[in-house]
Design brief:
The chain is α/β, with parallel strands linked by helices and 511 residues long. Helix content is 43%, strand content 15%. It contains 17 helices and 14 strands. Helix 3 crosses helix 4.
């Protein structure tokens, strides 16, 4: 029996060893983590550190902005998920929105420019709160200031993404009263949901991104960090929706200026601009209708007032702002001084929908990529009929349960549209020169059709050929008046030698 008991004890011991070995093999990650912690503990004891406290309250009792930004930054660190302990909090505004925070006595590590840093929440009993930043002594001079600037920059971006956007409207209040009334900006439009030519959308997105990152660039040029856009086209083509999508993309509040309420003169418009906050989109709709005059004011007086609002000296206080103007008609009846670059940098033309624009809307509203009725819809558009995106969207919303019924309604609507008459034939005009240095951009329409002309940095055809033609015409006339036989400059070789030879012959003939 003793032998049997010893055999049982031995078997139990071997089993225990086997289980321990198996557990060690299966939990090798825990063992590796323990080894890393031991190595880190030994390494930390061999280093000299400098400690910097970031209190919640400053010496005068005011809130320390750096504490709020540092706390937001630390809560976004990936190392917080691997920390030994952290606090889990939920958002009061959104359900199922959880976030980690650094609890009292907890620490989170970070790395910057090759240096290792650590944040510790050294909360005191009074509830004031302190964050302690630990930096190696030999790294503190090199990384401290750039790191704190990095912390503030990241925290500002996080706050801009999470803050609630607001819509402001001028109330027309007298001096001393509230100039703006606000409400939450809940428009759901985004650049991704706007029906627009993909290439055009990419250009607009790139232009907005360049503006967001261009603070140092604008200041180096000595220019106000501001960008202005003109959205023009027929009513219902999506100009206001596109402006809302721009605000969503930028994360900017919207200030909608009603020019009819700003009836106190130019100073009132400037005061409205000075009352706006940075990171805002200032929207002025129906600019052309306002410039036509009315209510006892001439068109010239209103134009002068708008010019001062666009780029007067007071506009220098409007940094980090995007100004968007809309017009329901064309640009022909507007003073060119209003449209010049610097006042309106980017011009985007919104037109009525053609078949390509219809397909984009049908994909968004009805989820259709193709349909047996598409040939009939295309035939209606090829006949010259056009519908606005607003009209097509309303038809598709009303018939969203039946795509076939929606398409038949579109076909019927196209049949009742009277196509516009063809433009009258006009005599040929001299080529119009355009400048590549103005920064003026003329985009295509939201319906997906390219604009007939593009001016500025996005133009694909340079005006050099037009310039040569105009120069040859002037040269031809001058020589004809002087009795000199004209030379065909278009026959010159690409390297310009033939032109030089022709010029030499002309000089010899003149002598």
């Amino acid at each position: 029996m003793a032998l049997d008991g010893g055999a049982v004890m031995g078997a139990l011991a071997y089993a225990a060893l086997a289980v321990a070995a198996l557990r060690l093999v299966l939990s090798y990650k825990s063992a590796a983590h323990a080894l890393r912690r031991a190595w880190r503990w030994a390494d930390e004891r061999a280093q000299a550190y400098q400690y910097y406290e970031v209190p919640r309250l400053a010496a005068d009792g005011a809130e320390n902005p750096l504490f709020r930004k540092a706390a937001a930054y630390v809560s976004s660190l990936p190392s917080l998920e691997d920390a030994d302990a952290a606090c889990v909090v939920s958002s009061a505004a959104k359900s199922n929105d959880f976030a980690l925070q650094l609890g009292a006595g907890h620490a989170a590590r970070d790395a910057f420019l090759g240096a290792r840093l650590e944040w510790t929440n050294a909360a005191d009993g009074g509830g004031g709160g302190r964050l302690v930043l630990r930096v190696r002594r030999h790294d503190r001079t090199r990384v401290l200031r750039p790191y704190l600037q990095h912390v503030e920059s990241v925290a500002d971006e996080m706050e801009a993404r999470r803050r609630e956007l607001r819509l402001y409207a001028n109330t027309g209040a007298a001096t001393g009263g509230a100039r703006w009334a606000s409400a939450p900006f809940t428009h759901p439009a985004t650049l991704d949901t706007v029906a627009m030519d993909p290439e055009l959308k990419a250009r607009v997105r790139a232009d907005l991104e360049g503006f967001l990152k261009g603070r140092a660039y604008y200041h180096r040029l000595g220019r106000v960090w501001r960008r202005s856009y003109l959205l023009y086209g027929a009513p219902g083509t999506g100009k206001s929706t596109f402006a809302a999508a721009m605000a969503r993309f930028l994360g900017y509040d919207v200030y909608e200026v009603d020019l009819s309420r700003a009836a106190s003169g130019e100073d009132d418009l400037r005061a409205l601009l000075l009352d706006t906050a940075p990171r805002s989109l200032i929207l002025v709709e129906d600019l052309d209708r306002y410039l036509r005059g009315g209510d006892g004011e001439t068109a010239a007086a209103r134009t002068a007032r708008v010019l001062g609002f666009m780029d007067g000296l007071s506009s220098c206080c409007g940094e980090e702002r995007v100004m968007v103007f809309t017009m329901s008609g064309g640009k022909d009846g507007v003073d060119p001084a209003v449209l010049r670059p610097g006042r309106l940098d980017v011009h985007i033309h919104f037109t009525m929908c053609d078949f390509e624009g219809f397909k984009a809307l049908a994909s968004n509203y009805l989820g259709l990529k193709d349909h047996k009725l598409y040939p009939q819809v295309e035939e209606g558009f090829q006949g010259g009929a056009r519908l606005s995106p607003a009209e097509l969207g309303e038809i598709m919303i009303a018939n969203r349960g039946s795509p076939s019924r929606a398409l038949r309604t579109v076909i019927s609507a196209l049949q009742h549209v009277v196509p516009p008459p063809p433009p009258p034939a006009t005599a040929a005009r001299p080529p119009r020169l355009t400048s590549r240095w103005s920064g003026h951009l003329d985009y295509a329409s939201a319906a997906g059709q390219s604009s007939p002309r593009a001016v500025g940095g996005f133009a694909k055809d340079a005006p050099i050929r037009e310039f040569k033609k105009l120069y040859g015409l002037i040269k031809y006339r001058s020589r004809k008046e002087a009795g000199v036989v004209p030379v065909d400059d278009s026959a010159a070789s690409p390297n310009g030698r033939a032109s030089e030879a022709s010029s030499d012959k002309d000089r010899a003939g003149d002598s």
